[in-house]
Amino acid sequence: xxxxxxxxxxxxxxxxxxxxxxxxxxxxxxxxVKHFLGDGGTIGGDDQGDNIASEQELFDIHAQGYVGGxxxxxxxxxxxxxxxxxxxxxxxxYLLTEVLKDKMGFDGxxxxxWNGHGQIKGCSNDNCAQAANAGLDIYMxxxxxxxxxxxxxxxxxxxxxxxxxRIDDAVRRILRxxxxxxxxxxPSPAKRPYSGKTELIGSEPHREVARQAVxxxxxxxxxxxxxxxxxxxxxxxxxxxxxxxIGKQSGGWTITWQGTGNDNKDFPGGxxxxxxxxxxxxxxxxxxxxxVDGSFDEKPDVAVVVFGEEPYAEGHGDRENLAYQQGxxxxxxxxxxxxxxxxxxxSLFISxxxxxxxxxxxxxxxxxAVWLPGSEGGAIADVLFTDKAGKVQHDFKGKLSFSWPxxxxxxxxxxxxxxxxxLLPYGFGLQYGEENTLNDALSEEVVIDExxxxxxxxxVAGKLHKPWLMELFSGEQNMLTNAxxxxxxxxxxxxxxxxxxEDAVLISxxxxxxxxxxxxxxxxxREDIFAVTQSESALVFSMKLTTPLTGSLIVxxxxxIAEGVEDDCGGKVDISELAGGMAIDTWExxxxxxxxxxxxxMDYSNTVMPFxxxxxxxxxxxxxxxxxxxxxxxxxxIQCE
Length: 641
What we know:
- There is one protein chain.
- Helix 1 runs parallel beside helix 3 (64-71).
- 22% of the residues lie in helices and 22% in strands.
- The protein contains 15 helices and 26 strands.
- The model is unreliable at 562-566 (pLDDT under 50).
- The protein folds into three domains: 2-191, Glycoside hydrolase, family 3, N-terminal domain (TIM Barrel, Alpha-Beta Barrel); 218-384, Glycoside hydrolase family 3 C-terminal domain (Rossmann fold), CATH 3.40.50; 450-635, Galactose-binding lectin (Jelly Rolls), CATH 2.60.120.
- The strands form five sheets. Strands 13, 14, 17, 18, 19, 21, 24 and 26 form an eight-stranded antiparallel β-sheet that branches. A six-stranded mixed β-sheet has the order 7-12-11-10-8-9, sandwiched between helices.
- The chain is of the alpha/beta class.
C-alpha cells in the first residue's frame, strides 16, 4: 500500500502540478484517481468481483492510493465496477458519500465507469436513480442509453426520487472543478503551450526515463552459478514468442483494448527485447540470432528465451489459479529442449503479475521477471550484458512488490499473514554476485483437491449462471436473449417448460444457414475453467426433439477468440446419431466427454463459449440444464479415448 500511496501522489502532481505551484496551469490537466474502491482485492482476483475485506482492511490496503492522490489534490474520482460485500460500488452511498466525500473530505466530482451504474440491482443503463443518490455526480454512458437516462433522471428529480439538493451538489462539484481548472478563462486546448508539439511524444529524454524504469524494475529471481551477467561477445540465441514482440511486452490497454492485433511497426521508435540484445552484442563483436522456436544452425553459447502471458485487459485476465500455461506447456518444452542440448538458458518472463512457474524456473539457469517493459524493451539488455571490458553496466535493482507464489492456488499471500510461506518473499530480488537461493528441484506437482472441484452450471432451471450469457445466431446475425421469444434469420427461439415454468428453451431453424444458440462469456472474456477438466468431466445437458432430426446437429466449444481466425480454438461433436434415436417430445440426457473437445484443441483455461448447439440443416430442439459435471466422463453418452 505504501508504494501505491507514494506513486499516486506523484502521478497526480505530475498531471495537475503542485498545489503551491503551477496547480492546474495551462500546462496541466485534471487528474482522476481510480477505481474507487477495492477492485484489486476481489475474491479470486476476479474482474468486477466482490471484495469482502473489513472496512479497516479496505482502508489500510486498498484506499492508500486515494489517500496519496487526494492529498496531492486530485479533482476527480472514478467509481469501480466491483462490489463490497455484495453491493456494487456505483450504488454504495456509504463509500461514495459518507467515506469519500464526508470523511475523506473530497470536494471534487465522482464519475462512473462505462455503464457501471447499470449493474446496480434494480438499475439498467438507461435508468438508475440509485447511483445519483449514492453519490455519483457524472454518469458514464458511452452508448445510446444516454438520452433515456437523461430523460429518466429529470423525471426522477421531478418525482422526488432524486432530490433537487443532490443534483445541486453534483452540479456544484462539477463547476467547482471547472473553475479551479480555469476552463472559463483559459484558451482552448488547441491554443495551449504544448498543443501540436508532437515531437515531444517519444522524445529522447522521455525514452531515457522509460528505459531507466525498465532497467530498475527487472527482478532477478534465479542466477545459478552466476551465469549472469553475460559477455556481449558471445553467440547468443534469442528465442521465444516474446523476443521480438513489442505488443506482447506492452500488455493490455495498448493501442487496442486487449493489446492484441498489434505488431512492431505500430510502435514507432520502440525497441523489442531482441533489438536491445542485438545492438549490445553487435557492438562488442558478438552474434545475436533471432529464432522464435529455438532452432539454430550453429550451436549458441547461451540462449535468452523471452516468453510469458499474452496481453489482456479486465476480465480477459481472470484465472482459476496462477499456473502458467495450463494444459499447454509449449514454453517449457522450448526451455527443456535447449537445456537438453547443454545450452545455458536465461529466461525473461513477461507478465503483469506473479505466476506459478516452478517448472520453468527449474528449466532455467537464470530467471528474470521483466513484467511489462512497454516500448523500451531494449533496455533489458543494458542489465543482462556487461560492456566490452566485462564491467557491469547496470546491476539489478528491482524487488518483488508482490510475494511470489509457491503453488498454483496461492493467490492470497501477504507478508504478515500467519501462514505466510511464499516461494519468494515480498521485497526479494537478487543482485549480481549474491547467492542464488533457488535450485533446480522445485516441486512441479499440481495437487488438485478433488473436493474443491465443483460442478460448473452454465444454464440451469432456466437461469444463466455468471459470467455466462446466451446468444442466438443465424448466418452473420446474432443477438443476446433478453425476452421469452426471439426471431433472428432462420432461427426462432422461445422459453418452454421442462419441470417448472420457463426453465428451458426451444430453438428451431428453417435451415439454409448455420444457426443456433451459444452460451458465451461477457465480451468474450477468456474464462479459466481448466480445473474442472482435470477430474474426468463431461458436458451434460437435457434435450428433446420436437420434430424428427433429418440433418446434422453439432455441439461445439470455443476458446480464446483473437484477432484472426487462425487464433481461434475449440472442438465440435456431431450428436445427430445420438439425437436421431430419441423419442419425439421426450426430454433425454446428453453427456459428452470433455476429452472430445480437448483432443481437438479446446483450451478450457481460455474458455469463451463452453456450449454451442447449431446446424445448417432444419431442426427443432429443446435445451435445458447445461452444466460441466466432474467424474462423469466414463458414463457419458459420447466418449473419446
